[in-house]
Amino acid sequence: MDRHRFRHSVAILLAVAVTGCARYTPLPLSTAAPLAPSLGALDASTPQAPLTVAQVITLALANNPDLKAARLQRGIAAGQTEQAGLLANPSLSAAFLPLLSGAGTVPAWNLGLAQDIKSILTYKSRQRAARASERQVDASVVWQEWQVAGQARQIATDLIIGARNRQNYLAAYQLLAERSAKLDKALASQTVTLVTVAPDRVALQSARSALDALDQQQLNLRHQLNALLGLSPEVVVPLAAEPDLPPFDPAQVRGEIATLPDRRPDLLALRMGYAASDEQLRQAIQSQFPDLILGGSVASDNAKVINGGPNLQIGLPIFDQGQAAVATARATRAQLHADYDARLSAAIGTIGSLLREYEQLSAQLEVARRDLPNARAAAARAQAAFGASNLDERGYVDLVLNRFTKEQEIMTLELALLDRQIAIQTLVGAGLPTVDLESTTPVDAR
């Protein structure tokens, strides 16, 4: 009967253990690059072309390959939080000892149950550390979303401005190409000298190089945008004629710098990492408590004499008293504290520097725009005079090229100004996803 009960108990325990086991399913790696062959193949609904900058950002956040991989880290962090919420399993020991010889009459057996008490002491701290680590992952993913959104905004804007500026570069090149063709005929008929033709050819080559450089940059930007969206390189993403950017007020940005630590995901991630490290220091200190295992056991010998009672096992902290773990945890917390201070200083310093650069470019752009009407008026008068044969072709081309040069200078300043604006808006999170954390209260450093 005793043997039957023992087997029955073991069968029940095995059944309980098996029901909690997970099943394995294979997940083979891709054999081909999972790039979308068209805009319509992207995840989420593809808006009607041409795309605005805001629509490009939406597609990037939904389809960027690196973001898809980063978001899976949330599942890992959630699993670690769940694991931290579980107490250590009790330990069950059992033995069945058949009678081999001697005066006994029945087989002997014993059964014991024990629990690690030390793991209970660090339970709450482990939970808090795991929750802080999970929030750190959430904030890190949102920060990566900011980076992707900022890149999408920057690249789409540069492409739009570049397509608009190309008309100016092309017009300048065509004007010089027409004059070069006429000079070639004049040179062939020996009505002009090579010395007269040389400056025009240098100017034509410079205009051609500038146009080629712009086309190369545009193609490179399109490839960057496709990679950001998870598209094949040959796909052409149609874009709107003008960039739609969030409203930008430098004075408002300066006023919001003080609240930056409560909003920027990378700073929040560092704060959560510091909170987790602080809890790990608490665990290291609590772990200096000696190992303690409590339990009970019952046993029956070969003469059916049954004994039972509590068991106690305690570790003797003679050699390892946990001092190394405490020192490591304390140093780690100090490093994270310094990392946070460094990142906060860099964040505020970078935004302040970009605002100063924005102000400088704005002043330079204002001066260039003030000079543009005179350049355009001079080009218009030159064209009228050239049409009336009151100005030679060389003078006409020089005045028209001066207008093109001034317009290209303004375009360059406008693009630089937009680049600074987009960089600032990315760093402060204008129009970007926000971090939703249960608690972002920093832990005081001690």
Automatic annotation (TrEMBL):
| Transmembrane parts of this sequence | none
Where do the coiled-coil regions begin and end?
Answer: 351-378
Which InterPro entries does the UniProt record give? MdtP/NodT-like, OMP_efflux
Q: Which GO terms describe its molecular function?
A: efflux transmembrane transporter activity
Transport is among the record's keywords: no
Do you know which Pfam families this protein is assigned to?
OEP
Tell me which UniProt keywords the record has, alphabetically: Coiled coil, Plasmid
Say which family it is in. Answer: Belongs to the outer membrane factor (OMF) (TC 1.B.17) family.
Name under which the protein is recorded: Transporter
- Species annotation: Novosphingobium resinovorum
